[in-house]
Structure formats: C-alpha cells, structure tokens
Write a structure and sequence with these properties.
The chain is α/β, with parallel strands linked by helices and about 280 residues long. The chain has one domain: Sandwich (Protocatechuate 3,4-Dioxygenase, subunit A), CATH 2.60.130. Strands 1, 2, 5, 11, 12 and 13 form a six-stranded mixed β-sheet that branches. Strands 4-3-8-9-10 form a five-stranded mixed β-sheet, with no helix packed on it. Bound molecules: 3-methylcatechol and fe (iii) ion. 3-methylcatechol (MBD) binds next to helix 4. The site of 3-methylcatechol has 12 residues, from helix 4.
Length: about 280
C-alpha cells in the first residue's frame, strides 16, 4: 500500500500474525483428515481452479501475480483472516444446514477460549473510558421445546468502538470486551457492554491488497460474537448484528442472516440501549 500508515493501520498489521499464533495454539493436536477425503475434496478444489483458469483465459502474468500474493498471505500471517472472511461462511452453512434451533454464523479469527467468568449477569471487562453506547444484552437459553437450560455457558466477544479485538490488536488490556456467562436457574443471562461499531478488517496486508486490487471494500457490519453451549446439546457459534446498521447487505465476510439482527431500544433511564435474544439449542 502506498498510503501512509495511520496508527490504526499499523496496529492492524500485527493482527494477522496474532490470529495465526492463536490458531496454531488451538489446533496443536492437528485435525486428522481421512486420506480418501483428501483425495476427493482436494481433487475437486483443484479441478474447480482449473475450470476457472480455462473459462477466464488466465495469463502467465496473472498466474505469477497469484503466486506472489499467496506467498504474501503466509508472510503476513493472514491465512486465518483470509479463510475466515472468504471461505468459512460456506463451511458454517454446510455443517449446520440441518441443525434445529438458533442460527449460527462464522467464528472468525478472533475467538479466545476461557474469557473471565461473569456469572449470570455481569459487565464485560473494559477500560474506564471505554468509548461507545452502553448496551444491555440479555436472553434466555432453552432447548428446542422451550425448556430453560440452567448452567448453559454463553461466551461473548466483540471489537471496541474503533474495531480492535483484545489479544490481537496491541494496546488493549487482556480480555477487554470478552466474557463468559452462565445461565441462571431460569436459563437467563444478562451482559452489560458497549455497542460495537462497524468493523473494517485489517487491510494493510495481503488480504487488504486483494480487496483494494479488486475494488471491493473491507467492512463488516457491527457485530457481537457468541458461543452458547450446554452439556448434551450442540454448541452454537454465531454473531448478532444491529438493525439499520451499515454493511448489513455487503458484509465482506458474507456472515449475516436475517434471523441474527437485533433491534435495541433506548433504556428508560437514558443510559444506553437494551435488547434481548433467546437461544434454542439442538440436542447433540
Ligand atoms: C472479524 O471481526 C470477523 O468477525 C471476521 C469473521 C473476520 C475478520 C474479522
Ligand atoms: Fe468479528
């Protein structure tokens, strides 16, 4: 990129490498894939690529540009970012297509397990002067018949008001805007946090280079990330968005669904906004 790096861009540059480190940590044992599936799926993926090359008369200059770019994705540590932005949504759709209960969405590259435990109601860790509109976000966790699931675990994480995730962008306290809730006897939880803003994915690395070269934009609508789990039930990984928000119809990560849009209302005491969302979990 030729434009001068702002402080924000400079921070974004480290984000991809951190996402790679966290992913490697998480998948240390290494997922095992059946050799027959490797042959089938990798073979089909290569064939799809061959078909694109033939259909679009790809040139040697274009082939070399692809090679350089792929090398740079790795150098920038941006494989988790690139794959989660452009590929994960189809995996999520495919894996969960027959699951009952609340809709899922992609996990993305910025989940960290074991965020601070906050009980059934609590405030996400945040800075004294955390910018944004205060948001009360609560709900009930049930099975698909509406029976409350006390003890269900709700993990919530999101970016700050300028689009940074703690543990990935430098300069934020550890666990900022990340927390773990446990549903009470009635299956309810309540999180006090700040409403997130639209989010521009890190765009000063290889992923941003592709987006700029193609003339796309790098934005995601404002979103909350969640994982909801209870013993004997399938864990839901999802995201929630905000009605009327920018980029709902042009999410670079293609991860919005109509069922996942919140419509917060102003609180009676004028101290921010509030909204509820109830989750139904399917049996494992
Ligand atoms: C994000 O915050 C995100 O949620 C996804 C899916 C990709 C990049 C950044
Ligand atoms: Fe996100």
């Amino acid at each position: 990129m030729t434009d001068q790096l702002t402080e924000k861009d400079a921070k974004a540059a480290e984000t991809g490498a951190n996402a790679t480190r966290y992913f490697q940590e998480k998948s240390k044992s290494g997922a095992q894939v059946d050799p027959e599936r490797v042959s089938t799926v990798a073979g089909a993926a290569l064939k799809a690529l061959h078909d694109v090359i033939r259909e679009h008369d790809v040139t040697y200059d274009e082939y070399d540009a692809l090679k350089s770019w792929l090398i740079r994705v790795g150098e920038d540590g941006e494989w988790p970012l690139f794959l989660d932005v452009f590929v994960e949504h189809v995996v999520e759709e495919t894996v969960n297509k027959e699951r009952d209960g609340s809709k899922g969405s992609i996990e993305g590259p910025f989940y960290v397990p074991n965020a601070p435990q906050l009980g059934a109601e609590g405030t996400l860790p945040m800075r004294d002067e955390e910018p944004g509109t205060p948001l009360d976000f609560g709900g009930t966790i049930t099975d698909c018949d509406g029976k409350a699931l006390p003890g269900a675990v709700i993990e919530l994480w999101h970016a700050d008001d300028v689009g940074f995730y703690s543990q990935f962008a430098p300069g934020l306290p550890e666990w900022n805007l990340r927390g773990t809730f446990t549903a009470g006897d009635d299956g309810r939880f309540m999180a006090h946090t700040m409403q997130p803003a639209p989010y521009q994915i890190p765009h000063d690395g290889a992923t941003g280079q592709l987006i700029a070269a193609a003339g796309w934009h790098a934005w995601r609508p404002a979103h909350l990330h969640l994982k909801v789990a209870a013993p004997g039930y399938q864990t839901i990984t999802t995201q929630l968005y905000f009605e009327g928000g920018e980029y709902l119809d042009s999410d670079i990560a293609s991860a919005t669904k109509p069922e996942l849009i919140l419509a917060p209302t102003p609180k009676a005491d004028g101290s921010g906004v509030e909204v509820t969302y109830d989750f139904a979990l399917a049996q494992a």
